[in-house]
Amino acid sequence: MFGHRNDGIDVSRTLDPIVLFTPLIMPTRCESMNMVNYPAEYEPMAAYIRKQKNSGHNISFLTIMAAAFARTVRKYPTMNYFVMGNRIYRHKDISISLIVLKDTKDGSLQEAEAKIILEAGDTIFQVADKMDKEVSAAKSADEGNGTADFAGKLLRIPVLPRLVVALARLMDRMGILPKSLNKISPFHCSLFITNMMSIGLPAIFHHLYNFGTCSIFLSVGRPERQTVTVGGQLARRLVLPMGIVTDERIGGGAEYAQGVHCFLQYLQHPEVLEMTPEEEDQMNAPQAEKLA
Predict the structure, then answer these.
(1) Highest mean pLDDT: which range of 159-163, 191-195, 225-229, 285-289
(2) How many C-beta atoms surround the C-beta of residue 82 within 10 A?
(3) Cα–Cα distance between 69 and 132 in angstroms, integer?
(4) Which end of the chain is more exposed for a tag (fewer CB within 10 A), N or C?
(5) Does residue 292 carry a pLDDT above 60?
(6) Average pLDDT in the 57-61 region?
(7) In the chain, what percentage of residues exceed pLDDT 70?
(8) What is the torsion angle, in degrees rounded to the nearest 10, for the CA atoms of residue 266, residue 268, residue 271 and residue 277?
(9) Which residues contact 239 (CB under 8 A, 6 or more apart)?
(10) Could you give the number of structural domains in the chain?
(11) What CATH number is given to the structural domain containing 111?
């Protein structure tokens, strides 16, 4: 309340007045969405995944993306901001929500949510361990899912769901939503990823939710061949299409551009994510000195 939240830190005083003014002009995320398609080269990530599999590490495309996002947030904190009640906050953690298919006994298609809490200093192996744990729990048909269980109980009582959602919206806006609800809500996160590749569909531009705190939605589509520029020359490459939707109110276009470029660089060089941030800084220090 009054700018204090258990899941965010008010950064409004540090921002440009124009950025602070945008939530007044565009009060909701749905009217503040910017949509862009980014293709990432498939082979660098695929080769890294094969290499790590041979070494006994369970690394996936989503693992690389989650680790790349966490490391990007360390360099560009704006990517972890969100708007609530005309104020701009920074998430206290780096949380990533995923939709996964459950392992059902009858083969029916059932979805569940997984939420992974990361640290900016996590290596890709630490990210993999956290993701494997949460995704395995979400996919298990025998284990309950916090979000689904909570929704199921509410729906048993007529009228109650509307009242609970309305109350949750109000409490969230005031910054007093209980931590227990924030923990199970997939809508309260730094990044939401939907893996369309797993069901053989192309990338989409998924809308942002007005409920919750998610400012970035990433959709990953099935691999396809596209004409890309390599070293100033056009070439046909197998790429992984990504549809990225962002809330433009949390920062300027230049900041987003730098953040997304950094994210894409990590995707093309996932081996860097094996280092700690300190080791990466030391590796980049000589190059930075040459540019100075």
Answers:
(1) 191-195
(2) 24
(3) 17
(4) C
(5) no
(6) 94
(7) 89
(8) -10
(9) 39, 40, 41, 42, 223, 224, 225, 226, 228
(10) 1
(11) 3.30.559.10
